[in-house]
Design goal:
Low-confidence stretches: none
Oligomer: single chain
Bound molecules: pyridoxal-5'-phosphate
CATH topology of the largest domain: Aspartate Aminotransferase, domain 2
Number of helices: 15
């Protein structure tokens, strides 16, 4: 990883194409032919690298993407998937069967998978919010083998100390997986902080244009090899067209995310001064509870922030409905700015009491800051809050 991130985002993993294409071409191919059975067996038996069958991941477009993804996080290996949830599911099957501990708030699909579906297969799930973190020892002592967390979390941007949690989990022989979707590899590299796995929903910042659905799991070769067969036989492989689009997006990832960091900081500071706004949740604000930890473990504070509108939940809904540049839509990380009211979207399924326990008020609005001009985004927020 000696080259800078922007250089790696462009050049890492690119194949040396016989026709001189500067980027890996799209091999929109399901199977690859061989000159002889001996050549075929060399690839099948793993003696030689090569293309074989796309669902196995043995497709040059996909392999090139995975080398690029791995270089972004300083990982030895990366497996790409057809969605972020597919990456999580394969990880849980391969490394979570003795039990998974989910720390803090997480994406709704992750919570549902761990709480509703995995127990049907006999896989125990545990949930510890930050104020119960002291119970992590106890759960690990009982044999949970995988700690799963997001940092910063959705939607209150809570931070977890990845280094300290990894150290603790390793004492019990457990592994740590960090969903790094909110931060992106530009702002945080969990493997360098001691985590064993890093996951991204590439549907968000890595894809960056709200036009592809994909996921990735990264880590050491030793830990990723057992995941390969799960991906292959669950059939959760990324499509070559999507892999090619994702590689194209990653080439501008550092440029996009650094601009999103800067605009989010401007908006967070302006919202803090706005009389119609109560609390602002953004790791880049010096008085935000996670600020010091963010300075230690993040390289940038990200493009996601949340605000509490003064008034009622209905007032917050009116603000969300009045925004014009911020489109009312779930998801995040694209070039266009988005707004969601978690109590009506991502956390709608929880009871009001459970939302309150997680610090998610009805007046909370989550903003995903895009690449529009900061002045225009501020003008939009000001007119909606007026
Ligand atoms: N992780 C986070 C933080 C997410 O926000 C999401 C989706 O919103 C996922 C994982 C799941 O990703 P996907 O929709 O690509 O399956």
């Amino acid at each position: 990883m000696s080259e800078g991130l922007a250089t790696r985002a462009i050049h890492a993993g690119e194949l040396d194409d016989a026709h001189g294409s500067p980027h890996t071409p799209l091999y929109n191919t399901t199977t690859f032919k061989f000159r002889s059975t001996a050549d075929l067996l060399d690839v099948v038996d793993g003696r030689k690298p090569g293309a074989l069958y796309t669902r196995y991941g043995l497709n040059p477009t996909i392999q090139s993407l995975e080398a690029k993804l791995a270089s972004l996080e300083g990982a030895e290996m990366a497996w790409s998937f057809c969605s972020g949830m597919a990456a999580e599911a394969a990880l849980f099957m391969a490394h979570g069967r003795k039990g998974i501990v989910c720390l803090g708030d997480a994406y709704g699909g992750t919570l549902e998978l761990i709480s509703d579906q995995l127990p049907l297969l006999g896989i125990p799930g545990h949930f510890l919010l930050s104020h119960a973190l002291s119970r992590l020892d106890e759960v690990l002592a009982k044999g949970a083998e995988l700690v799963f967390l997001e940092s910063p979390t959705n939607p209150t941007l809570e931070l977890f100390d990845i280094r300290a949690i990894s150290r603790l989990a390793h004492q019990y022989g457990a592994r740590v997986a960090v969903d790094n979707t909110f931060a992106s590899p530009v702002n945080q590299n969990p493997l360098a902080l001691g985590a064993d796995f890093v996951i991204h929903s590439c549907t968000k910042y890595l894809g960056g244009h709200s036009d592809i659905t994909a996921g990735v799991l990264m880590g050491s070769k030793e830990l990723l090899m057992p995941v390969w067969a799960w991906r292959k036989n669950l059939g959760s492989m990324i499509a070559p067209e999507v892999a090619s689009l994702l590689a194209r997006s990653i080439r501008t990832l550092p440029l996009r995310v650094r601009r999103q960091n800067a605009t989010a900081q401007v908006i967070a500071e302006a919202m803090q001064r706005h009389p119609g706004v109560g609390r602002v949740f953004y790791p880049g604000l010096p008085d935000f509870p996670g600020h010091d930890l963010a300075k230690k473990q993040m390289k940038g504070f990200g493009g996601m922030l949340s605000i509490e509108v003064k008034g009622t939940g209905e007032d917050a809904t009116r603000v969300a409905d009045r925004l014009k540049l911020f489109a009312l839509a779930p998801s995040l990380g694209g070039v266009e700015s988005l707004v969601t009211q978690p109590c009506t979207t991502t956390h709608h399924g929880l009871t009001p009491e459970e939302r309150a326990r997680r610090g998610i008020s009805d007046t909370l609005l989550r903003l995903s800051v895009g690449l529009e001009d900061a002045d225009d985004l501020l003008a939009d927020l000001n007119q909606a809050l007026a």
